[in-house]
Amino acid sequence: MSCSEHKDYHDEEFDPCHLFDTYIGADKTISKEELVETPLKFFQNLLSSGSVKGEILIGLTIGSSVCHSFVATDFFKHIILLESSDCCIKALENWIRNEPGAVEQSHIVEFVCSLRQSTEARKHEQKTRSAIKQVVKWDITKENPLGAVVLPQADCLFTAYYLEVVSKDQDMYINLLKKLSSLLKIGGHLILFAAINLSYYMVGQHKFAALKCDKEFIQKAMTEAGFIIESSQTHKSNLKSQMIDYDSIACFVCLKERLV
Predict the structure, then answer these.
(1) What is the pLDDT of residue 230?
(2) Residue range 2-15, pLDDT digits in tens
(3) Which one of 55, 123, 242, 246 counts the least CB within 10 Å of its CB?
(4) What is the predicted pLDDT for the residue at 1?
(5) What is the pLDDT of residues 239-258, one digit of tens each?
(6) Which first-to-last residue range defines the signal peptide (predicted)?
(7) What are phi and psi of 55, to 5 degrees?
(8) pTM for this one?
(9) d(CA 231, CA 49)
(10) What is the number of H-type helices and E-type strands within the chain?
(11) What percent of the chain is helix, strand and coil (3-state, nearest 5)?
């Protein structure tokens, strides 16, 4: 199958709950550790250090996962989620309302609680639901992806694996990053998790396209979008799978220095 025949994140074949179960479900080991657990340890340690703080966090990830929110809810009063896929918005709202059939994320909550040395996973899960104030459509087909929605500027912007999954080329990646930057205060922080050199991922029988990005390109994109990279970590992948092909997971902490 050529790259042009790969499915797109926004195609109707994309199933956010199946994506979650495939890579970070409770029965997964290596992929769950690499894609979620190790980055969440990084995020927890970062926020616990006090170097990134504020009241408002805006998050943009893929599928139905709210993993980062389980960490952020201890440090930010208000969490706003952005999502460009209608089916993912529905899946997120189902989880927030605790509706039957919503994706089961309790094992992620328990992992985060272990980082916090807490055993009150159920209480923390409900706290996270209450902290998420909005799920907002981020329509990347529009010049202004928020449309008529006006959001307060965030103290922290978090995104994981999103830009490489939705971008068709490097120019689109940088353009979307600049638009995300506009949601962040000067002096605020962007936390970005990236799947380095990801070119595809499978959901069920369907192969979905991704933009292959190395660390050098991401660093260049950050600079063009007005950020200074304060720190980063890279963790080489040990996953041997035909389902997904990233080389490593990189975590970036970036300061918004200027408007672009």
Answers:
(1) 98
(2) 456 899 999 999 99
(3) 242
(4) 46
(5) 999 999 999 999 999 999 99
(6) none
(7) -110, -30
(8) 0.96
(9) 13
(10) 10, 9
(11) 35, 25, 35
Contact, 124 vs 113, CB < 8 A?
yes
The span from the first CA to the last CA of the chain, in angstroms, equals 38
Phi-psi region of 98 (alpha: psi -120 to 50; beta: other; left: phi over 0): left
User: What pLDDT sits at residue 5?
Assistant: 80
SS3 204: coil
pLDDT along the chain (260 residues), means of 10: 77 97 96 97 98 98 96 98 98 97 96 95 97 98 97 98 98 98 98 99 98 98 98 97 98 96
Residue 103: both structure tokens together: 């994706």
Within 10 Å of residue 228's Cβ, how many Cβ atoms? 12
What type of residue is 69?
Answer: S
What's 183's DSSP letter?
Answer: T
From residue 83, alpha-carbon distances to 24, 48, 124, 134, 241 in Å are 19, 27, 23, 11, 27
Question: Which of 195, 103, 201, 93 lies closest to 137, judged by CA?
Answer: 93
The CA distance from 30 to 122, in Å, is 25
* Rounded distance between C-alpha atoms, residue 239 and residue 245, angstroms: 9
The 10 Å Cβ neighbour count of residue 187 is: 10
Class of domain 3-256: alpha beta
Q: How far apart are CA 41 and CA 65, in angstroms?
A: 16
Tokens representing 213 are: 């990005």
Q: How far apart, in whole angstroms, are the C-alpha atoms of residue 80 and residue 135? A: 6
Residue ranges of the alpha helices (H) in the chain? 16-24, 30-32, 38-49, 67-72, 86-96, 106-115, 121-131, 162-166, 170-181, 215-224
Tokens of residue 82, six digits: 């952005």
